[in-house]
Structures are given as structure tokens and as C-alpha cells.
Amino acid sequence: MHKILLIIQREYLSRVRKKSFIVMTLLTPIIVAGFYGLLIYFSIQGASSTNNKIAVVSENKTLTEQLASTKNTSYVYVNKSLAEMKSSLGKDGFDYILYLPDFSLDAPAGIQLLGTKQAGLSMNSKVVDDVENAIRIQKLKASGIAQEDLDKLKSSVNIDNKKINDSGEEEDSSAGATTIIGSAAGILMFMFILIYGIQVMRGVIEEKTSRIIEVMISSVKPFQLMMGKIIGIALVGLTQFILWILLSASISTVAVKAFVDKKDLQQTAVSAVQANTAQAKTGSAIEKQVTDGGPIAYVQKSMANLDLTKILLVFIFFFIGGYLFYSALYAAIGSAVDSETETQQFIMPVMMPLTLGYVLSLSVVTNDPYGNIAFWLSMIPFTSPIAMMVRLPYGVPDWQLALSMVLLVVGFIGTVWVASRIYRVGILMYGKKTSLKEMLKWFTYKN
Amino acid sequence: MLNVNNIVKQYATHLALDDVSLSVEQGKIFGLLGPNGAGKTSLIRIITQITAPDSGEVIFNGQRLNASHISQIGYLPEERGLYKKMEIGEQVMYLAKLKGMSSAEATKRVRYWFEKLEMGSWWNKKVEDLSKGMQQKVQFVATVLHEPELIILDEPFSGFDPVNADIIKNEILELNKQGATFIFSTHRMESVEELCDSIALIHHSKKILDGSVAEIKEKYRNNTYWVEYDGEYNPVSGAGIFDVLQKDVHKGKTTLKVQLMEGKTANELLSVLLPVVNIHRLDEVIPTMNDIFIDQVKQKN
User: Fold this and answer.
1) What are the TM regions of this chain, as residue ranges (chain A) (predicted)?
2) I need a labelling partner for A8 at 20 to 30 A (CA). Which of A234, A420, B139, B162 fits?
3) Is there a contact between B198 and B213 (Cβ–Cβ < 8 Å)?
4) Residues B6 and B138 occupy one common structural domain
5) Which residues of B touch A (CB under 8 A)?
6) Does ipTM top 0.95?
């Protein structure tokens, strides 16, 4: 027992002290936080400042003053000819010229959007929508429908997701946030198992190629060496994970306080609401949104409905379990080869179920978190660490969670046992190309 | 101190050790010889408990070999290595602690050995920054650091320059004087003659020869002598005393290789030669370990 602690200590310290580990651990949260910071910054900036001024040159009487300005695009009707506007474009404060020739409403043609720069895709479709809308309204009016009837036609629908829990109470459900949290946890799990599993394999190969293995094995049992390495590297992974969580939390708290002051956030929310109100003046859903405080508040509220502590604890459990399950297999692969280039053929069968679990979790499980496939994926230890993390935020019955955990524990005890039998033979084999068949034979060797 | 009794070890398709027995006496240097692939490494791996025999047993100081003996054995494998990215001092400390030494004790011993072998400045260097010879020295220190009773060295001098080989040889002799028992596995027969008290020769998984070096050499003496003289004399094979095996004449000097007949002595040879020639040299041809090794291995083939 004393020896395995020494091995764990060496494996842990030799990795944690590496420059690459320190740099990765410190930089990743900063990069991620920076990335999201930029994203939020640009969406706020984008929402408030992009404003295209469009000069409308209309030769079409019916469409005069019919295009309503919105927050990001303002239409200004000018009494100048197209040629005049063209010559002064860019100097008169307008970004684009919208030219509406005199066409019949039934066959609109010859509409042009001119600018000093090419109009973007969203800008283009916005203008198309606005013009189409204006034409439709004119047509409806022409067929004798009054303006107030038209206003009544508009409705804005907002579905309120509720989930009835076991005790029959309504819970606010949070489809958006659950999907984000679930997928993020699944991706993180996939990455961690892969990165640290491969580290175990590299560590074993390093001991083999540097030939220190024989000295080690004359002091400790192969099982102690293998488990020491696996546990040591698991602790490195946990250290990195916990540091990431702590660093990201503190960076984002500081960043939110420093760069995004509350007024900005409120303004965004309010202006978003105003934009909505401008488009549709009626409808009770709008009122609800006003009281809720806009989309950002909506995400915040749905995050609050998730039990983040539980998700974090379950994540750590499944990370340890899934990592042990796979890293034992990686250790066996490492023991069977002489160099990293030979590992390809063995990595494939180990990577397959993990990748399959990852892909299916992000597609099938996200779409149908309570379905049969989702259930089985979250039970089989090959895929359960990822699938369960994706399912968890949607709510998983306790018995399923417990069963999945038990199966994972049984699973990793199984892989560790199988791997240790291959490992103890493999580490002393040199110069032979190993096949899967050979590895099976090693498994049956006596000591 | 170490008895190997009827060890059999079978790998998938080949028999690595076939009923091998030998015994190593306390405080001696024992040579384990044999051509490549004979089974030496398999036997060493059994003694160091890296693998277990299929049948037979190893007795260490009167006890059946078990995990408690690990700290009393030091092993320097032929294919040796260290963690490349680890600092030397830390690495040797780690290996010592794995052998069961306390931290304080290990520090003391590492400092002692580093000073003795002039490695004091290496403590914070990484293995990858050392030359191969320097790495060998580190490995030697790691092998003997925990003061094992039995030290097993597989080709200990390979990779050393003559100066360092001599330093290591003297360390081995000194440790031996202090009571450590050695098992030497090597192909270099001159170091066997120089160091070993007794040997065992393994060939094709079987032990084909063992005993003390002196006894074996005695056994392989066959009454052959070199005689060098000048003067006119044409030796006649026979004459009842000797056979001439070889004759060279060079610058008026004649060199003869003769084998005495059964029961005859060197004195009788001299009495034949003295009246007729001037004798410069008379040597008994004593077989070297190298000759015995080649002779034995060829015979068995």
C-alpha cells in the first residue's frame, strides 16, 4: 500500500509540475472566458449599434411611406431621383439606397438595393421581408380589410415550458439551458476521458521504451504500478477540472462586474422588448416578456432551475468511473506495444464505443432524453459517462442514476482486472508485433 | 544464501528453463554464464520475483522466496533505463523508497554515493541531459543504494569506458568485502576470471556446468605446455614422454606446444630438453574461461 502511494505521488507530481500543465490549466479558462466575453460583447454591441440607414427612392405611389423603420434598419423616403442619390451615396449619411420602381403589386420587379458595400445576407433578407410585408398589407387593404383588423391578426406566441414532477407540482422546465449544460458536460467528459486515458497509455509506453520497467517490477507488483499510474493521472485530471471550475467562476464574476455594468444588460433587455413592441403592439405574451426582463433573464432563470451542485458531483463520479474504465484499457494497450506508432490498431476498438456514445448522446439523447436508446446508452458502462451527463439536466429518476453508477463500478472493476492481466505480461515483452489474439493469450497466462 | 531448486519455466512455445538448480554462497561473486537466449534472464527474473517459475523453488537465506525479500535484492538489468524527464536525485530517491527505505535514510545514502562516485553536481540534472556512461553510474547507484544482501548485475560493464568500468569494478569488490553477495551475468569472460568465485553455465535452458572457477580450471587442465628454446633439436613425438601438438620456428627460436603423456611431469620434459637446447620459457597451458565456455557450448551443439 505504501508503494502504491509513492507511485501515485510520482505520477501526480511529475505531471502537475510540468510547464504545459500549468499553462493549459491557467490559460484555458481565460481563453474560454475571453471567448464568451467577446461573444456577449458583440451581441450587445450588435444589438445596440448596428444601424443601417436606407434611403428609399420610391416611384411606386402605393408603397410610399409604407416601410416601417425598426431598431437596426431605418427607412427614409427621399424625394430625389435615383441618379441623384447614387452620386451622393456615402456622403449624405445613408448606407444603402432602396429603389422601388413603379410596378404592379401583383408582379413586383426591378427592385434594387444599392450600397457602397455589398449588403449582408441577413440585411438583404430583412429588406426583402419588409418589402414583401408592405406589399401584402397594401394588397389586403385593397381588398377592403381595415387597418385595425390587420393589427388584430398579429399575434406573438411564446410557449411556457412546465414539467410536472413526481409530487404533481409544476416545475419551470428549461429546455435551452438543459441542452447547453447537458451537451457541455458530455463534451467535457468525452475530452477528459480521451485526454487522460491517452496519458495513461503514453506513461506505460514511456516506462517500457525507457526500459525502466524491469527495475520497477523488481520492486513493485505490476498491478501496483498500473493502478498507481492510473490513480495518479486521475488526480491530475481532477486537479485540472477543479482549477478550471474555480478559475472560470472567479474570472467570469470579475469580468461581469468589471466590463458589463448592469445598465448595459438592462438596456439590451429593454431595447429588445421595445423592438418587439414596435412590431406587434398587441398580445399578452409581450407583457409577460416585459415582466420577465427579456431573454438574458430567461436563461438566468432557467439555469437557476437546474441543480448545478448535483450535476457537478455526478460529473465527478462519472468522470472517475468512466476514466478508470477506459484508462485501464489504455494501460493494457500501452503495455502491448513498443512505441506509440503501433497503438493505432488497438486504439480503434477502444475509441469506437466512446465516440459512438459521444455522437449518439449529442444527437439521439438530446432529442429524446427519456427514450429507450437514451436509457440504454446511459446504462452501458462504455457510453454511460457521456450519455448520463447529457441526460442528467433533463431529470433522471434516482433508480436509473443509481443503477448506472453501480454498472459503471462493476464495469471498471472488470476492465481493470482484464487490463492488469494483459499488462503484467505485456510490459516485459519486447520486439514482437502484438496482435489482439496474442493479448487474449496473455490474459490466460498463469503468473 | 541462495538456492535455486529444479526451476522449470515454460513460455507459450518454448521452454526457457529446464530443471535448473544452482546455489550461491554467502559473500561470493557468482557468475551466471551462457550464450544469448540460453535462459539467464529468465532465471534472473525469477530470482527478482518479476515472474514466477512453473515449478521448482528459490530459497533465500533459508526461506522460500517471498515479497519481504524484495528489499534485500538489488537488480541492474541488462536493458536499463530511467525516467527521462525526472531529475537524477529525485529519481534515485524514488527507486530507493520503492525498495522500502525511509526518506531520511535514502537522502543520506544517496548523498554518500553521489559524493563517492563524483556525481554531486548531478542532483538536479535530468536523465536526458546525461551521457550514457553517466546514466549507467546513476543506475549502479540505484541498484546498490538500499544495501541489498544480494546484488544481481546483468552485463554491468557494457557502456562504460575503461576508467569508469574500473571504478565500478572496485566498488563491486568493496561491497563484496563488506559482505554483499553478487550474481553476475555476462559474456565477458575476462571479467569472470577476474571477479567470480564460482560460475554456472546455462545453455539451451539447461545448466551444463557449475562449480568454483578454480575447480573448473583444474578440471580442464590437460598437461599441455608451451616450450621456447634455441638450438638444434628436432623433437620426436612420443619418445614415451610427450606429443608435439604444434611447432613454430621464428628468428632461430623454436616454440613448441606439447602435451605430456599420462603420468608424466614437466620435470621429465625438461630432463629431455636440457642437455640439447637453451630453454627460454616453459608455461603450462591453462584453459581460460573463454576456452571452456566455447568448448562446452560447442560440445552441446
Assistant:
1) 21-44, 180-200, 241-260, 311-333, 345-366, 373-394, 400-423
2) B139
3) yes
4) yes
5) 12, 45, 48-52, 54, 70, 73, 75-77, 79-86, 94-95, 97-99, 139, 142
6) no
